Amino acid sequence: MDISALVNHDGEASVLPRRSLSHPHSLPASSPVTPAAKIPTPKPSQQQMSLKRKRHDPKPIWAYREGEQLPPELRQLQEQQRQQSRPPPPVVVPQAHSRAQPALPSHPPPPRPQPSPNAERNGHAHSDAGAPPPPAVTASGLSRFARPMFHDAQLYDVVAHEVCEFIWATAVNNEAVRNAIADPKVQLEVEARWGQILEKQTDQRLRGVWNTECVIKSEALDVKFESTMTALQHKRMNHALNAQVQQSKIPGAPRPPIDYRHTYETDMFYELDQEGFSTLNPIVQRLISASGTRQKVRVTRDKNTGDFVRAMIKHRIGNLEISSPKTEWDYRIGINLEIDFPGPVDSLKAALEPGKTLESMQRQKDRMSYSWLGAYQIDLTQVTQGTSKNHELELELDSDILIAEADKVRLKQPTEFEDIISGMMNNLRVASRIITHAA
Fold it and tell me: Residue 169: is its pLDDT beyond 50?
């Protein structure tokens, strides 16, 4: 039997291709064929009649050839299905709501991560009601080939996500820390240091099977973090930062201004005795006692005038180490409490190491500070103690802004909590590449 006779009325089934509703190589899920109820049941005397469809019966859409005119009702159906198959138009975000980018990156920063600090590290969320929900996807993300098939405009930065979780659990959602910083004499410090993760046995930089940036489980390794760089690296970073300041000050520059400050200070450490300990906030006393660590009071004075600047206790809450084998430096994210010492400093006993003098224990700090957006400050410091000299680079987040944005998460308000941490990570990475790739 010639099957084409059932669907082609002119016998040219092998000459022209069939029409498809949406694609020449696909068939629609259903076709508007004539219902069986409208086809008359053949009588016994008609069984030998031709099975060819009558000319006036409506043809299904798949029976029409390319170029053949469709009847009005099928053209309308075809247009409706085309409209339904089109993707929705993109949402346009007004430029007025775009956020200022950190000043340092010389390359486009990685896409903003979408962490939710209430998620467990294996990716499953727990039931902590105070943790932030996943952020809404904006239209200012990826496009074309870089955009995944699941229509997400943003990608997931797993390292920045881990940092978000660490800061959230260690500081934001830590009841003891939040109670402590309610005292105006206690400040939260969130800092990121450039340095190297060293194996204690070999004193060599930690190497492993990983070849790219990752968070390490430092508690499972016998390692230490050394925050230092060479004098040449210090010089290169100083030039790079100064260039950023100059570029930000150009009239009409499309970037946030960078403020610069140069200070010379001297630090001296003193033992925290029982009398001085009793002058601290009871909440702080409990935190220090629970840590079981020996605390010291750092007294800072202006190097040139000798004027008193500050006396404080720096109490460590937690650290997170990030290995970055592609660059010269690794990173340490530190959460600390800076506690103003309310007692007299003249009665304190100097903390001297065996064989050291009072003068050799003083730390002379030559510090250049670069701050922008009211949220970040990079300190490039040359520290001299006795005959040794060390160069340090650290980035500090403004804790007031960080906590304020984190509290917006709790209130389910629009927040930049993740953006602040993502900006910190971007600046750590770009500054590392500036030094690593320098000629």
Answer: yes
CA angle 214, 215, 217 (to 5 degrees): 135
What pLDDT sits at residue 62?
A: 55
Topology of 168-351+359-436 in CATH?
A: mRNA Triphosphatase Cet1; Chain A (3.20.100)
How many helices (H) and strands (E) in the chain?
9, 10
**Per-position DSSP letters for 176-226, written without gaps between them:** HHHHHTTSTTEEEEEEEEEEEEEETTT-SB---S--S-EE--GGGS-EEEE
Answer for the pair 335, 324: CB distance below 8 angstroms, yes or no.
no
In the chain, where are the structural domains located?
1-85, 168-351+359-436
Confidence of residue 141 (pLDDT cuts 50, 70, 90): low
Q: What whole-number distance in Å separates Cα of residue 167 and Cα of residue 402?
A: 10
CA atoms of 401 and 208, how far apart (whole Å): 37
Please, is 329 exposed, middle or buried when counting C-beta atoms within 10 Å of its C-beta (0-12, 13-18, 19+)?
Answer: buried
How many degrees, rounded to 5, is the angle at CA 68 between CA 63 and CA 69?
A: 105
Confidence of residue 403 (pLDDT cuts 50, 70, 90): very high
- C-alpha 324/C-alpha 210 separation (Å) is 9
Q: Is 377 helix (H, G, I), strand (E, B) or coil?
A: strand
d(CA 25, CA 18): 9
Determine the pLDDT at residue 83: 63
Range with lowest mean pLDDT among 124-128, 129-133, 154-158, 198-202: 124-128
How much is the pTM? Answer: 0.68
